[in-house]
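Give me the fold.
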Amino acid sequence: MKNMKTFKDLLDLILSEETLNEHKAQRITFDIDTNHKWISMYKYIEYFDDEQDCMTEAKDVVFSYLSFKTQTELQEVYWRIWNAGRTKNYQNN
């Protein structure tokens, strides 16, 4: 099948998402387990906590332990990350 994403494509996408974190109140992070072939994606949102009178972060799980063992699963992971990144960028503009 044409235009199938590879593991290298997935890593390149993750690196580009990390670059998009610069100068944003919202950060995206990833946990990757290459032994079990799963990935988790988290969103951290920075905000001012009035009670504590300081900046703090809230963690939101975008998805966790999503498998990429098969080619089909790898495609799903790739496009879920890509779509989450586009949504994040639109929300920050």
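The chain has one domain: 7-92.
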